[in-house]
Structure formats: structure tokens, C-alpha cells
Design a protein that fits this description.
This protein has eight helices and eight strands. α1 packs parallel to α8. It is globular and about 45 Å long.
């Protein structure tokens, strides 16, 4: 099962250094989701990521930037569904129902389904699916290796995500902690350990 990180919403001191360290430790993908940031800020951040790792990045909000920086993936959402001409990177999308996963699955490389558990980082953002919903979707093949679980995933429940049939787990609040290198790497190690890596 893949572990996918979603960036902290705001830039923080030492963030690029921490991201490079995570990639060196084996992090599969990082989604750069900075709702308040401008395109130039996001591009500046990406240019601090070691070049071999840039193909493991996916950008939210700035399709033209994903097109400009060859190899960087693009994450589609309700407001950003246009894929620029000439874009050949990895495409992903967020879904909030099992029906949406079924509908979108053939159009992208992988998808997020959320919220699977109560959110760690967004207060009041509760799980939208019962165990039986997930089991049925997995048994019917809707949830498979292309679908990553998002929402409330911690090192304590990440093994459960694999058992549910998801091909990946996307983490945000449970990874970044106090935003120091030591804490981030410790938390990443806990996720990897819980996943048996």
C-alpha cells in the first residue's frame, strides 16, 4: 500500500528540507495543497525539491504550473477540472462518494476517497462511510489499488486501511505534527512501521 502525504496548508520553516528527507526515506508521493499561496510561491517551493523527486509531486490549483514543470502531477477538483493541452503527468482526483469513484476511476491514475475516518486536521469533518459501505465497495472492485483513503488516517489505523482494500493512504494532520524535522520523521517512521515497511 502506498503512503501519500498532503502538504501542510501553510508554508513553514524547513518544509522543503523535510520533504526531501521524506522522499529519501521512501515517501511515494506528496500533494502540494496550499490554499492561500500564489503560483509563484508554489513554484519556488517545488524548485527546492531535489529534481529526481519532483515526479513524485502533485500540484493542486495551478494546472499551468503542472504543465510548465515537466513530470509534476496534477490533482483535479471540482473547481479545477481542466487538463492543459500537452500535459502528460500523473492525474488524480478527490471523491466523496463511492458512486463518484466508480464514475471517475477510468479518467485518472488514482483517486482519493474521503473522509474515511474523522479528520485529524479539520474539526467537525466526520467519517462519511460505514464499515459495510467500504467492505461492499471493496468486494465489488470499486475500491482497489487505484483508490487511496483520506481523512483521519493515523499510524494507529493505517493498517486497517490496507485491510479495507485501499491501494493507498493519504495523510495530512497525522504526519506534520509540530512541523519540525524530528517530529515529522518520527511520525513518518510510525506510519511505515504500522504498514509493515
Amino acid at each position: 500500500m502506498r503512503l501519500i502525504a498532503i502538504s501542510w496548508p501553510d508554508f513553514f520553516e524547513g518544509e522543503a528540507e523535510a520533504v526531501n528527507a521524506l522522499f529519501h526515506e521512501g515517501l511515494e508521493r506528496l500533494h502540494i495543497r496550499k490554499p492561500g499561496a500564489g503560483e509563484a510561491d508554489v513554484e519556488g517551493f517545488i524548485r527546492q525539491i531535489e529534481e529526481p523527486f519532483r515526479q513524485r509531486l502533485a500540484i493542486h490549483y495551478f494546472p499551468s504550473l503542472a504543465q510548465k514543470l515537466e513530470g509534476v502531477g496534477m490533482h483535479l477538483s471540482n473547481g479545477f477540472r481542466h487538463v492543459p493541452d500537452g500535459f502528460f503527468g500523473t492525474l488524480s482526483i478527490s471523491c466523496h462518494s463511492i458512486e463518484e469513484v466508480e464514475r471517475e476511476k477510468s479518467t485518472v491514475d488514482y483517486l482519493f476517497l474521503s473522509p474515511i475516518f474523522d479528520s485529524v486536521s479539520k474539526s467537525g469533518y466526520k467519517s462519511a462511510f460505514s464499515d459495510s459501505d467500504i467492505r461492499a465497495a471493496s468486494a465489488s472492485g470499486v475500491i482497489d489499488s487505484k483508490v487511496a483513503a483520506l481523512g483521519g488516517i493515523t499510524s494507529a489505523n493505517v493498517a486497517q486501511v490496507a485491510a479495507m482494500g485501499f491501494g493507498g493512504a493519504a495523510v495530512l494532520g497525522g504526519l506534520w505534527g509540530d512541523r519540525t524535522m524530528g517530529d515529522i520523521m518520527r511520525r513518518y517512521g510510525e506510519y511505515r512501521g504500522a504498514m509493515g515497511h
